[in-house]
Specification:
Layout lengths: L2 H15 L1 H17 L13 H24 L1 H6 L5 H32 L11 H25 L1 H29 L8 H27 L4
């Protein structure tokens, strides 16, 4: 198989093995949107239930996939096949990005249903700002976690999970507070902010993947 076919196969493997997790995450997203207030206010407020639900579901998917492979030593099995370690890393990032997109789409659909069916009096549809913030926040958490995972493996990285996500979450929250303090609106119409965000996303993503590949190639399975 060529590289693209191999990565596609590995991503499909993640999806097939995590079908129960996907059902749980659907319930998780629905519960978050049904219980948290949608009247958060503030242009940079990361307290939006859409962001909470999307980020939580996406990160839980990544952790679930990593824990499953770590527990059943699937990486060791695939390493014995003609599959390069770099391809396994690329597939994990692709799987995580797909999970982020699906989590945001799921949150938007459930939120729209809550409003259309009038299940909640304060129901609001997901805004483009919510979707963008959820995408970048989830991506940055994945970019920070996966290199640690590929360096230590799931069992050893569990000790660092709380620290890694706490630090990354704190950074995202502090950036939000800084934007508010400076009076910079996190708006989709702010072209300069969008360009900077995209460039930062590409840079951090590239660095994260390269570091993860290097770590995984040097790790004994």
């Amino acid at each position: 198989m060529n590289r693209l076919s191999t990565i596609t196969f590995l991503v499909q493997k993640d999806i097939r093995l995590q079908r129960r997790t996907a059902l749980f995450l659907m319930f998780f997203v629905l519960m978050i949107l049904s219980s948290l207030s949608m009247n958060t206010g503030g242009s940079n407020a990361f307290a939006s239930p859409y962001i909470t639900a999307s980020v939580g579901a996406a990160i839980f998917w990544t952790l679930s996939v990593c824990s499953y492979e770590g527990f059943y030593k699937i990486e060791k099995l695939f390493a014995s096949l003609p599959i390069r370690r770099a391809e396994m890393v690329y597939a994990r990032y692709a799987s995580s990005m797909l999970a982020i997109i699906n989590a945001i789409a799921l949150s938007a659909i459930f939120g729209a249903l809550l409003k259309v069916l009038a299940i909640r009096a304060d129901a609001q549809t997901m805004s483009l700002v919510d979707a963008t913030a959820a995408f970048f926040a989830s991506s940055f958490l994945v970019f920070g976690y996966l290199p640690v995972y590929f360096k230590l493996g799931y069992l050893r990285s569990r000790l660092f999970n709380i620290v890694v996500f706490a630090l990354l979450g704190a950074v995202i929250f502090l950036i939000s507070l800084l934007l508010d303090a400076l009076g910079i609106s996190f708006a989709i119409s702010n072209v300069a902010a969008i360009i900077i965000g995209i460039l930062l996303y590409i840079l951090l993503g590239f660095i994260s993947i390269r570091v993860a590949v290097r770590f995984f190639k040097g790790r004994a399975l």
